[in-house]
């Protein structure tokens, strides 16, 4: 069975075609600049040369059509015809409270996704466009929605509610939802497997550290708390997002700088985080380089990032009554040897000791804690596409 995994952004489509017989990736690629000048498809078939296709891609339907053409092309294709695609799995950012698991997309599900637009105005509309484009190009092929929010739906009320009048929750669904759920779920399952333990016996803290970063407290395989909130702005310091701040800063700055609601939203989402502090970049590689060259604000941004992660780890240890393993994943978590060291130095009180030699790895699943460390530390590369493909297979396999 072959599953097409699709992740639509406002001007992009990321895709992978996965052969579920052995979970191998047959091809992957990226459509960029949809609706803009210079739109392009970069297609990477497994074991063949990368192909760059420049075309006028004015909307997501044209993008999906080009992806199918690339996948079935006589020269750089990997399947003979579109009929080989048994199902499509979509990454959907916001499922609200309606979805605690992945689902087969039906007209009712589409209606629910539309209702979530208000809560994820930047993400859900392109996700929905992706589903519509696939229905148009591949009519009759089952499609599955896999939500970033679903894994976090097990959070108890005391963790997901904000202490504002209860009516805000009842009327508008204002609560913590959490994101990156597919990644937190995947790495928690992987680490249990690598440790040879049952998920049900573990207390896990997963640190998804990338451009967007979040952390989750997982007990008996269930998410108990996570750092992103009503939107992905809450929690850790991020590439360009502030993470948690005193909410009273908003009206203060809006008055001082004469900012509109939209402008302050942009300020906190796009101009803050390690970019705002360092003034150098939102990319951690640039900031690490600048810090090494003596840039004090770059060094401060890295210290603030690590400090916030450590604070969250401490609070999540309290939330789940201890911790057995801490996992690092995503771009920074998988690749930054120095950031992992910086975060772990200061967690020794928990019985956590990082091994500098084992930690000297990038992008590889491996234990990095020292022998005898009471709390284990692991690096686990995330694979959200594989989770989407697996869920799609499970759901569509049940259809047959
Ligand atoms: P997102 O999916 O949220 O866009 P990623 O998970 O791809 O983000 O992570 C991107 C971040 O990971 C970038 O800030 C990048 O600097 C950082 N990163 C990637 N490789 C390294 C590395 N070798 N050292 C330090 N940071 C890295």
UniProtKB/TrEMBL annotation:
Is Electron transport set as a keyword in this record? no
Cofactor remark from the record: Mg(2+). Can also accept Mn(2+).
Q: Name one GO biological process term.
A: acetyl-CoA biosynthetic process
User: Which reactions appear under catalytic activity for this entry?
Assistant: acetate + ATP = acetyl phosphate + ADP
Keyword Magnesium annotated: yes
List GO molecular-function terms, semicolon-separated: acetate kinase activity; ATP binding; magnesium ion binding
PROSITE patterns named in the record = ACETATE_KINASE_1, ACETATE_KINASE_2
Where is this chain's protein located in or outside the cell?
Cytoplasm
Which EC numbers does the record give?
2.7.2.1
Pathway annotation from the record: Metabolic intermediate biosynthesis; acetyl-CoA biosynthesis; acetyl-CoA from acetate: step 1/2
Q: Which residues bind Mg(2+)?
A: 7, 384
The task this protein performs is described as: Catalyzes the formation of acetyl phosphate from acetate and ATP. Can also catalyze the reverse reaction.
Describe, as the record does, how this protein assembles with itself and its partners: Homodimer.
Family that this chain belongs to: Belongs to the acetokinase family.
What name does this protein carry? Acetate kinase
Species the sequence originates in: Sporomusa ovata
């Amino acid at each position: 069975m072959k599953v097409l995994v699709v992740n639509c952004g406002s001007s992009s489509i990321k895709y992978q075609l996965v052969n579920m017989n052995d979970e191998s990736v047959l091809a992957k690629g990226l459509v960029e600049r949809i609706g803009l000048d210079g739109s392009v498809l970069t297609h990477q078939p497994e074991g063949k040369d990368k192909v760059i296709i420049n075309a006028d891609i004015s909307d997501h339907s044209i993008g999906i059509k080009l992806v199918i053409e690339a996948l079935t092309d006589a020269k750089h294709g990997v399947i003979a015809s579109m009929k080989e695609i048994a199902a499509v799995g979509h990454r959907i950012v916001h499922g609200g409270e309606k979805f605690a698991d992945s689902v087969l997309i039906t007209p009712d599900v589409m209606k629910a996704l539309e209702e979530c637009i208000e809560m994820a105005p930047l993400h859900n509309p392109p996700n929905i466009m992706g589903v519509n484009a696939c229905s148009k190009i591949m009519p009759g092929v089952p499609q599955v929605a896999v939500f970033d929010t679903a894994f976090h739906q097990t959070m108890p009320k005391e963790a997901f509610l904000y202490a504002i009048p209860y009516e805000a929750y009842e009327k508008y669904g204002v609560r913590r939802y959490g994101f990156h759920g597919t990644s937190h779920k995947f790495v928690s399952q992987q680490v249990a497997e690598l440790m040879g333990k049952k998920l049900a016996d573990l207390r896990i803290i997963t640190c998804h550290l990338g451009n967007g970063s979040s952390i989750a407290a997982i007990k008996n395989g269930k998410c108990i708390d996570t750092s992103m909130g009503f939107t992905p702005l809450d929690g850790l310091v991020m590439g360009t997002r502030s993470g948690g701040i005193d909410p009273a800063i908003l009206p203060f700055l809006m008055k001082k700088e004469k900012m509109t609601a939209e402008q302050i939203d942009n300020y906190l989402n796009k101009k803050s985080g390690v970019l705002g502090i360092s003034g150098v970049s939102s990319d951690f590689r640039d900031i690490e380089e600048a810090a090494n060259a003596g840039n004090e604000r770059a060094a401060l941004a890295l210290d603030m990032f690590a400090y916030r992660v450590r604070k969250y780890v401490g609070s999540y240890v309290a939330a789940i009554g201890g911790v057995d393993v801490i996992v690092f994943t995503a771009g920074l978590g998988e690749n930054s040897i120095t950031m992992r060291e910086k975060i772990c130095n200061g967690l020794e009180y928990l019985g956590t000791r990082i091994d500098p030699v084992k930690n000297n790895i990038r992008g590889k699943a491996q234990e990095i804690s020292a022998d005898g460390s009471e709390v284990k530390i692991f690096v686990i590369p995330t694979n959200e596409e594989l989770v989407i493909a697996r869920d799609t297979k499970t759901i569509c396999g049940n259809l047959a």
